[in-house]
Amino acid sequence: MRTLQADYQDQGFTVLAFPCNQFGAQEPGSNEQILAFAKEKYDVNFPMFEKTDVNGARTCDLFKALKSGSPGDDGNEAIGWNFTKFLVGRDGNVIQRFGPQTTPEEVGKTLAALLAAQ
Length: 118
What we know:
The protein is mostly helical. It has four helices and two strands; from the N terminus they run αααββα. The protein has a single domain, classed as Glutaredoxin (3-Layer(aba) Sandwich). The protein has helices at residues 2-8, 31-42, 61-67, 104-117, and strands spanning 85-88, 94-98. It has a two-stranded antiparallel ribbon. Strand 1 and strand 2 form a beta hairpin.
């Protein structure tokens, strides 16, 4: 995702990261610890937000909106695992939802095609 941010930020694209501890307790640390880890290990160059619930009764409003009408490959709106990605247009509507196994390079191909069509 770091490369996508670097490659497309001048065209108005921004990666937004939302850590979540709902999947195998992969994000048990504090928001500060998660940010420090991401900067140290991955040299993140995009905004990282506070830990967020993406499923269940405490789902944040943003993820309610992202998931609404954007089911995953299994047809379910619930997010099945970390690293689910949403490509959102300038108008705020979801263009495409990508599963956790989708690589940043695959997202980049879709993004490049969309930007070329504008």
